[in-house]
Amino acid sequence: MSSPKPKISQEQLQIEYERFQDTIKSINEKITELKNDYDEHKIVVATLKGVPADRKCFRMISGVIVKKTTREVIPVLETKIESMVGALDTLSKELVKTHQEFEKWKKNTGVKIVSTA
After folding, report:
1. What is the spatial distance between Cα 11 and Cα 80, in angstroms, rounded to a whole number?
2. Using an 8 Å Cβ cutoff, are 64 and 117 in contact?
3. Which stretches are annotated as coiled coil (predicted)?
4. Do the strands 64-69 and 56-61 form a parallel or antiparallel pair, or are they unpaired?
5. In a domain, 50, yes or no
6. What's the distance, CA 103 to chain centroid?
7. How many Cβ atoms are within 10 Å of 45's Cβ, its own excluded?
């Protein structure tokens, strides 16, 4: 014999639904921001590779502009790009996991989403 599901109030369901939606929105915003940063870094690296290695360039680090050569800056930017790829992968997995949890929650609670658009 299966035990009956505990009765959850409309308000509790609404709060939980909004929590899921806020989490999904937040992750999507982080992914978008990181993709934009990634694209910008790729453009900068491609541009710097087209100039002499001893050419001076300026890089902002924590609000301070630092003078370096392209030879010094390119490896740092490439490392940063690699870390962005890893972060994007992690965020994408987190987004999939959150969507799966949301679908499981909808199934378990019997909530049906009605579009108002």
Report:
1. 44
2. no
3. 10-44
4. antiparallel
5. yes
6. 20
7. 18
Whether 108 and 20 have beta carbons less than 8 Å apart is answered as: no
CA pair distance 114, 45, nearest whole angstrom:
47
- Which domain range does residue 47 map to? 11-106
| Total number of domains in the chain | 1
Q: Which residues contact 56 (CB under 8 A, 6 or more apart)?
A: 67, 68, 69
Token readout for 86 is: 């890893």
- pLDDT (tens digit per residue) in 37-59: 999 999 999 999 999 999 999 88
Give the phi and the psi of residue 110 in degrees, each rounded to 5. Answer: 75, 20
Strand partners for 65: 60
pTM (predicted TM-score):
0.81
